[in-house]
Amino acid sequence: MVGFCGDDKPGRPSGLSSGDSGREHPVRKRQKTVRMKEKLSAAALCVGVGSFSDPPDLPGLAHYLEHMVFMGSEKYPDENAFDVFIKKHGGSDNASTDCERTVFQFEIQRKFFREALDRWAQFFISPLLKADSLEREVKAVDSEFQMNLPVDSYRKQQLFSTMAKVGHPMAKFMWGNLASLQQKPSEQGINVHQRLGEFRRTFYSAQYMTLAVQSAETLDTLEEWVSEVFSAVPNNGCPAPNFDDYKDTFDTPNFYKLYKMVPVKSVNQLEITWSLPCQMKHYRVKPLHYLGWLLGHEGKGSVFNLLKKNMWALGLYAGNNELGFEHNTTNAVFNVIVVLTDEGLRNVKEVITVVFQYIQMLQRLGPCRRVYQEIQTIEDKDFRFKDETDPIDYVENVCENMQLYPPQHYLTGDILMFQYDEQVLAEAQNLLTPDRASLLLVSPQFTADCQLRELWFETPYCVSDIPSDWKEAWKDLLENPELHLPAENRFIAKDFSLKEHDLKDSKYPVKILDTPWSRLWYRPDTKFHQPKAYVHFYLKSPLIGRTPQSVVLLDLFLNILAQNLTAVAYDADVAQLVYKFVAEDSGMVIKVSGFSEKLPLLFETIVDYMADFSVTEEMFDAVKTQLRRSYYNHVIKPMQLVRDVRLSILEKVKWTTLDKRQAMRPLVRDDILQFVGQFRRRLYVEGLVQGNYTRQEALQFEEYLVRKLCCSPVPQNLLPGLRVMQIPSGDHVCRFKSFHRSDANSVITNYYQSRPGDIHRLVLMELMVMLMEEPCFDYLRTQEQLGYAVFPTCRDTAGILGFSVTVQTQATNFSVTEADAKMEKFLEEFDKILKNMTEENFSAQVTALVTLKLCADLHLGEEVDRNWEKIVDQTYLFDRLEREIAALHEFSLSELQAWYREHAFTDRHKLSIQVVGEGGSESLTKVRQGQTEDMEADDDCDSGDEGEDEEDDEEDDDSEDEEEEEMEEDCQEANGMDEADLQLEMLPVEEEEAAGTNISDIPAFKRGLTVFPVTHITS
Ligand SMILES: [Zn+2]
């Protein structure tokens, strides 16, 4: 949520499509996993102005301008000229607008850095801001807003804006959309073009700007370049925007109330919020960090520990997120956010009481030096042994810090705790009193109560006084004997020495153990010389994947295990020892990493909890409810749904989130206990230990795991590989409605399947997608204005290659049929681009990709991820990167052109997955009877366990509160569509649209297909 426009350019498709299941890898993950031996050069510029400075009659103008400066300059007049240049040389760029700052950043190969700086600086020297670009780009801004419309955190933020004092900058609508930037201004006769220019001249001025550059040149050279390029940035000499007059932002009757809000996601949440004076001058003490640490603690004696014991909460966050909205010159927010169980929601007054009791205890005891120093030590060590970050992220952070801290703290001001100051800490914690708090309850259960609509997001909410008996109870808080300060943390590392090891010259992991039940790979750290390590184990079981139940049981197991571990593993977590469980196709993965000294302690704790697994009835029910909600929250996102459905068609056996939701309904506590018993009895274990350990120490991890879990041999034929369906030639369309019935977002992924891959074809396709990225953005987003998120992706689905183009658009603007037609048109446009490509251009692009692949890893984790991938996919091709580089030099432009023509046109196997959003012509055609716009209207109480028929007429959303509660008791579940069994609602495709098939029944479609053999890309 950095700013309002965090990921402005969808140049990071891996985030949107990456295979968390491990089944499918978006091939191009250059941003994350591949680094140059010579690192990329990067620059970031922060303008000390943001949405707070939006004129009252043009909400969103600052954000709009951030977009507009990309649209050509006097020196480089083409729209997107900078993007074209950056993409051509293997870089990326982005920008974001926050309350008081706007940040631009890019990265590129070093040899093009000087030129890129010059092109980029024109954003700030002489942007054209042409009227016709204005017309186009406002749609991108609007589409960005539409895309973020169903995001609860943004909705909540806008709701908080309504509580601010009238006329306060925090009361603004900072996103901007078509209404605020075009329709309303034109009704009022406002000349937006002119105002945008004025805004730029006033605020995009050198005295407000800070710049950070990172490149391997000498400092002198960099300084010379910067002064050559940036001295042309105008400086109007005006004083900086100042909001000092806006004090006590939320000291209004509106704030000290009880709010209720209906979320988009299915979740129950309590949010207690305090507004404090600006805390920036206390950055050396960081009182809110200290308080957030204590209130957010999950160990014994903590708020969360007590709430969980009562089964009232499954998660808790406390503190200030340090982004503009919560941390600015007018105010600092302190939040306690509790994810409630249904039981917790029923006892919400008691939940709040526990939070207040804990704070009162802190106030009574006064600030604790011992705890403060513990946090200080952790932050110090973390900084001292910090992994290198991406240059582009690093400069982004530094240029912002330059606006906030004195020069000696540019690099540390946001991280370190410099000084224990009892008075500052006491002042802050004494402000957190019950009578200064605002209360917000979030739950789908409040639909009937919430009759008000927030102006911009139309979030349903309501507001009332805090009940007087609550207030009365909080006047005299009793001491709660179960609450106390955290004990000393035994996971904090003290030994940072480096181990001697006997493997000096191997570049790749070495197999140091191979038994019928386990295999272990090991590699010491020969590059980074840090006292850290990574330990990954894949526990494979023939049980997993056979049925949707088995997949659900694994999810349940991992979630309960994580809950069981919280109290003990929380200390490890804050001491920067990371642990993570991942559900994979054939079992689970345990990953631990961090300072090597205490890592075995964490690993053994986890294994102990697995070996002595237990769960109470209440915990089982709470986790099950939570997981069911998270499945629902997954499928209402069209981007995730489109992926789920695509893979369910492509993979021979694939349980979608919908299957899982359905399969989980009958499961009870005994099922999970039985499952865990069976799972443990027959496991094949494969591990990787990398980092600051000797071979002997590496073996001890495997030994502990195998001994504790009593692993026994599993024949390999019980662990079959993944197989992929062959999409027949022609076009196949699968079109269905979005589950979120008031969301206009549609998503289309057009996937073009190739065949079993080898390295040669893989890199060919990778290069093609790289070439496609910028034209795709330019054609589909800038020219055709389909939407904010448009991107091509390279697909390696269990060894079967393909590529796709994805577009997120709004049904109110384009039907999926129109969008698909434009996407097809783009393929033709791209064909022309390829045809006209010169050999010179082609080899420049090959060089760019080779350079990217020659990346040096920034830290050990990147190397580990790459190696682990080869272990999970069982190719053990640790030198694949080198092979890919060799292959890149093998093919010609004409081969690429031919490959593209074949796959895009002459022999294409196209699978188009289309999620249709609300409000367009297509979604209207097939609305079934009784289905209303509001998702809360669906209720599935009487349709039975495996009910296929859930189309019975439902209550309208104006049903009375009492009725809802009755139903809730009946079926023991919260109301709402999220509790019904969901099924894809297929929509028809006109015959002339699909040259192949309209897929209306996925299993039937798959029955007619050939299956590819198990494929590994090894040669
Ligand atoms: Zn934006």
TrEMBL record:
Residues 194-368 form the Peptidase M16 C-terminal domain. SUPFAM superfamilies: LuxS/MPP-like metallohydrolase. The keyword Protease applies. GO terms for molecular function: metal ion binding; metalloendopeptidase activity. The lineage of its organism: Eukaryota, Metazoa, Chordata, Cephalochordata, Leptocardii. This is Nardilysin-like. The gene is LOC109477516. Keywords: Hydrolase, Metal-binding, Metalloprotease, Protease, Zinc. It comes from the Eukaryota. Residues 383-662 form the Peptidase M16 middle/third domain. It comes from Branchiostoma belcheri.
